[in-house]
Amino acid sequence: METLRLIPLEDTVVFPNMNVTLAVDTGDDERVLLVPRHGTEFARIGTVAEVQGEVRLPGGAHAVSLFGLHRGSLGAAHTGPDGSLRVQVEAHPDDHPVDGRTRELEREYRAVVEELLELRGDDGRIASFLRSITDPGALADTAGYSPDLTFEQKRELLETLDVTARLALAVRFQRERLAEQQVRDRIREDVRSGAEKQQREYFLRKQLESIRKELGEDEASVVDEYREKIAEAGMPDAVREQAEKELGRLERMGEQSPEASTIRGYLDWLIALPWSKRSDERLDPVHAREVLDADHAGLEDVKERIVEYIAVKKLREERGIAEDKRSGAILTLIGPPGTGKTSIGESIARATGREFVRMSLGGVRDEAEIRGHRRTYIGALPGRLVRALRDAGTMNPVIMLDEVDKVGADWRGDPSAALLEVLDPAQNHSFRDHYLDVEIDLSQVLFIATANVADTIPAPLLDRMEVIRFDGYTTEEKVAIARGYLWPRQRERNGLREDEVRVSDEVLRQVVTEYTREAGVRNLERELGRVLRKTATRIASGELEPPVEIGPEEIRDALGRQRFHQEAAERTAVPGVATGLAVTGAGGEVLFVEAAAMGGKEGLVLTGQLGDVMKESARIALSYVRSHAGELGIEPEAFENREFHLHVPAGATPKDGPSAGITMATALASLLTGRPVRHTVGMTGEVTLQGRVLPIGGVKQKVLAAHAAGLTDVILPERNRGDLDDVPEEIRAQMTFHPVMTIGEVLELALEPAPAATVA
Fold first, then answer.
1. Of all helices (H) and strands (E), which one includes residue 360?
2. Of 284, 326, 625, 726, most Cβ neighbours within 10 A?
3. Does 73 qualify as catalytic in the annotation?
């Protein structure tokens, strides 16, 4: 055992019989120990190396030439007089006896390395060097010369003292290198042969084209057909460049390529869009108004807006003002079902001479339905807007976006977010579909969206829309619609002629008031259809001879007993019941709020499928009545040890919204004062703890519901006085409106006069 200077080698391994030049300090030592190190971890075996002399490196630096002698294991360490680290080293020369197993591994190692060298294109020098090595230990160490081995593998090879085990390890390492090289060569060969196959097919196709020309076969190629269609499509320059680029790819790869069908599908969609086609608009405001009036009764707001749109466009065209791509019309019709929102889109298209396409968005949850799929997906398609333009055949159709308030969202994206660009006049002139990946001008499209309620439409999307509200029809409007539209249509559907069946306006009014209570006319048309089907059956069976006059008896026979009654007087005859007005997705409704008190712990019970807002309104109403008991003539003891119950019937229908506060407060005050609510009064408004009445929405729909229910007085917030202008004149003439600012005014108007004594 000898003591040698330790020289650490960072991530480097030196083997015996290896000449190296290192920039290290060996002092005056003739021999040193070279130990591999990774970070702070030293190998347990190093290489004893002989210092052969100093070497001057390029640039003037000094280095030392070293020759590896044999392996040595590290023993005790100490610091020498010159400050160097010295260790005791036990030498491990390769003097082990050689057996048959070792010779077999020698032959296997040489064979594997020679095969690897052959794959890498060795010129024979390395193979000759290997053949010159006869010592099995030195032969195994040559594996450590390979740059393909990692530091850990080289260190493992160095630390293996047994020659036979070292040879087995070297064989394993070289076999791994051989397998990797064979995989690389196989991949390279596959790529080369694939390229040669494509090139061979290309030349064969060219030869086939030449043969067809020589035979006189004038058969246009697919590429030529697409090139002709692209030239005739009238595409914008940027779109045409994209189409020609894809066509060039198709021409280079040929029809037999797996990607050819994808490119052809893409080109088919580009060609299918009507890039240069426009409908000849009829810019005649008078004609448009005549068409809209002929197709629909009422709906003055939307008719006026369409006429304004046509008039402005006519003036700009006549006066040579350039078309503004940011001036597109995007109308959103919000109202209950059956009010004619969807059908008016067809009338608008007919009035303007445009094509009409309807897109139903109800339940759509995939953003790709709007923007299309990217072409990286199998089975990718453009979005619905691109398909709508293709179906319309023009770039300026009327596109109806039905049920936009019922668009959903899930892990596939948010379609309403994709609609932000579509329905923004400042952006939709450069709409980009993910599949086509080219800009599409949607500014000439007249978008008409429909919805039942505005609450479920995202605020950013609603901000881009021009909202027109459909608040429902009055009784007289329903009678007019039934006379002019519904009755003739149902009569024709049921195979009856005009002279075979007649009905008076009074009978139609009976059907409207006694069998339907809706904002629209969808159910009204169903009821008229039932009447006419029964009439047609009796005529076909010979029971009746035309002409037939439909009267009240025929209505009763066809539709059964009366379904809707004027029940306000009956419901409010006892204290504790107030008539409220609300708005749902189906239009305005009348709600009867009932209050009751019972002995027990003090508290409030709420029933009737109430939402959080209405629950808060109920608690505020009770707190107000309790805090103003003295002003209302209620004894303080009326609240002690009593539990109050507020109930809104029709419990299967969820109800919520800030408009029932004064109704609940009135019901509680009526219960505790013993004063019934006037049966002719309906009310709407929110109340604060201080008794202020706050404004609400949906005034017109609520007033129409109150009128249909037979109410003659409506109490509403003072700040909603201006909304009464939206109520039809004939309704305003038949009803009395009471704008109020405080709950005290509400109770004064709503409650019957106080009896002789207060009832608590």
1. strand 356-360
2. 625
3. no
CB atoms within 10 A of CB 505: 12
- How far is CA 651 from each of CA 177, 606, 619, rounded to the nearest angstrom? 78, 11, 19
Distances from the Cα of 238 to the Cαs of 234, 262, 389, 437, 440, in angstroms? Answer: 11, 21, 19, 11, 11
In this prediction, residue 325 carries a pLDDT of 59
Tell which phi-psi region holds residue 633, choosing left (phi > 0), alpha (psi between -120 and 50) or beta: left
Q: How far is it, in rounded angstroms, from Cα 527 to Cα 533?
A: 10
Extract the tokens encoding 220: 């246009």
Kindly indicate whether the domain formed by 475-559 is annotated with CATH number 1.10.8.60: yes
pLDDT of residue 219: 42
- Which pLDDT value is given to residue 79? 87
| Residue 24 amino acid letter | V
pLDDT above 50 for 457: yes
**For residue 430, pLDDT beyond 90:** no
Report the C-alpha gap between 750 and 663 in whole angstroms.
Answer: 10
**pLDDT number for residue 390:** 92
Phi, psi angle pair for 300, to nearest 5°? -60, -40
CATH 3.30.230.10 residue window(s) in the chain: 568-750
Q: Cis omega before residue 739 (within 30°)?
A: no
Give Rg (Cα) of the chain: 46
Does 341 qualify as catalytic in the annotation?
no
Interval 138-188: pLDDT, tens: 888 888 888 888 899 999 999 999 888 999 999 998 888 888 888 888 888
Of 93-97, 455-459, 547-551, 639-643, give the lowest mean pLDDT range: 93-97
* Active-site residue, selected from the candidate residues 347, 416, 617, 659: 659
> Rounded CA gap, 161 and 96, in Å?
10
Q: Angle at Cα 181 formed by Cα 175 and Cα 187, nearest 5°?
A: 140
Mean pLDDT within 572-576: 82
CATH of domain 568-750: 3.30.230.10
Summarised one tens digit per residue, pLDDT across range 362-380 is 878 888 888 888 888 777 8
- Rounded to 5°, the CA angle 23-27-30 comes to 100
- Write out pLDDT tens, residues 480-505: 888 888 899 899 998 888 888 988 98
CA distance 49 to 13: 12
CA atoms within 13 A on the CB side of 638: 25
**Cβ atoms of residues 90 and 1 within 8 Å:** yes
Determine the residue type at 689.
L
Numbered ranges of CATH 1.10.8.60 in the chain:
475-559
The CATH label, of 3.30.1230.20, 3.40.1670.10, 3.40.50.720, 3.40.50.300, for the domain at 285-469 is 3.40.50.300
Q: For the chain, where do the domains classified as CATH 2.30.130.40 start and end?
A: 2-92
| 2-92 under CATH 2.30.130.40, yes or no | yes
pLDDT tops 70 at residue 255: no
Note if the pTM is more than 0.70: no
Res 253 pLDDT > 80: no
